[in-house]
Structure to design on (358 residues):
């Protein structure tokens, strides 16, 4: 386990592209951190700088309080699992797992014990004699994880390790990786573009966009207290609904729908008079029908998707689109008019210009 510090870390590639801007983060010993964000936001670049595979253009990277910018990957005590899990195709699962230790000249009996223990943790005991081509994608990925955890490392880095797996395997491996983390206790940094992976696995999540950190927090903090439109829209599935409009007489109006902002903004409503504001609410934050202490919203139902445990209802609110999540027993008919309520406590307001939460 290691304590890591990233202080004003920047990456400027040789072609001049500034991929990561002033990244700051303290990672506690044994923490499971997830970097999440859309393609190209700088997640892998940051991870590779931590791994020592990419040099740090500006800023300090500390392991246990000591500057580590100049250390090579081996000296940092990291193990890494990549998206393409490149196993040695001509070696059995056993030899793939043993390879790193063999190179280090570790005693054969010790290697055997470690290989068997790792295989047991990962459910690979029956496959030790198999060649990688005779394994499923999920089993290959387990071998790749096994190769990383077999060496006792302080820092475990994973870059989209589940992206080549099908949906079911991803769910299984997700809980296995969380379990392995609990058992090994290694400080772990995990990169993904999948918000569900981030939400289910992380102690804390770092949300990135265009090379900038948007917010760092626990899954709960990001879900209930997003700092801007990007984070609010990225965390949660289906995403938060956003209705953009100009504040007039302290209210946002869409056709016959009126949101009296004083209910939410109170004395600050005047500041936003004549300005653009973004009104956000989560699909699961609503209730059907009229309720107290809530905005009442008439809308028309355009489409419904029954998913079993809930139904997604696609609605039109005076030409603005939104998704509502309702109990499947309450699924409305398509092309009907319904009314739903958004409790004041479920409303998120954002500045139309800066897109920051207000
Ligand atoms: P993905 O999920 O697609 O892997 P990412 O968030 O991990 O995305 P990075 O791989 O870190 O993104 O890339 C961040 C940005 O830096 C991208 O715009 C990418 O094109 C750019 N980039 C990556 N490697 C280089 C390089 N060697 N030279 C110049 N630019 C690069």
């Amino acid at each position: 386990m290691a304590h890591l510090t990233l202080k004003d870390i920047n990456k400027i590639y040789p072609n001049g592209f500034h991929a990561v801007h002033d990244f700051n983060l303290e990672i506690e010993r044994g923490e499971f951190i997830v970097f999440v964000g859309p393609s190209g936001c700088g997640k892998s670049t940051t991870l590779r700088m931590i791994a020592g595979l990419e040099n740090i253009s500006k800023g300090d990277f500390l392991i246990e309080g000591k500057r580590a910018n100049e250390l090579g990957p081996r000296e940092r005590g990291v193990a890494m699992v990549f998206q393409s899990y490149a196993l040695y195709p001509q070696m059995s699962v056993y030899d793939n797992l043993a390879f790193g230790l063999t190179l280090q000249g570790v005693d054969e009996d010790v290697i055997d014990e470690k290989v068997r223990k790792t295989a047991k943790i990962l459910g690979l005991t029956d496959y030790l004699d198999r060649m990688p081509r005779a394994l499923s994608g999920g089993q290959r990925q387990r071998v790749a994880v096994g190769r990383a955890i077999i060496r006792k490392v302080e820092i475990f880095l994973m870059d989209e390790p589940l992206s080549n797996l099908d949906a079911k395997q991803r769910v299984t491996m997700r809980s296995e990786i969380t379990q392995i983390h609990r058992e090994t206790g290694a400080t772990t940094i995990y990169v993904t573009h999948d918000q569900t992976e981030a939400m289910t696995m992380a102690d804390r999540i770092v949300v990135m966009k265009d090379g900038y950190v948007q917010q760092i927090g626990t899954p709960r903090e990001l879900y209930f207290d997003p700092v801007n439109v990007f984070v609010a829209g990225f965390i949660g599935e289906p995403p938060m609904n956003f209705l953009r409009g100009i504040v007039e007489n302290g209210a946002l109006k869409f056709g016959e729908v009126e949101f009296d902002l004083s209910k939410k903004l109170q004395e600050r409503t005047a500041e936003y008079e004549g300005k653009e504001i973004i009104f956000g609410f989560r699909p699961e934050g609503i209730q059907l029908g009229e309720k107290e202490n809530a905005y009442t919203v008439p809308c028309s139902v355009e489409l419904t998707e029954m998913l079993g445990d809930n139904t997604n209802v696609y609605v039109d609110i005076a030409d603005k689109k939104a998704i509502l999540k309702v109990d499947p027993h309450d699924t409305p008919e398509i092309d009907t008019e319904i009314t739903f309520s958004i409790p004041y406590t479920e409303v998120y307001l954002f500045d139309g210009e800066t897109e920051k939460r207000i």
User: Anything to note?
Assistant: Residues 77 and 153 are 5 Å apart (CA to CA).
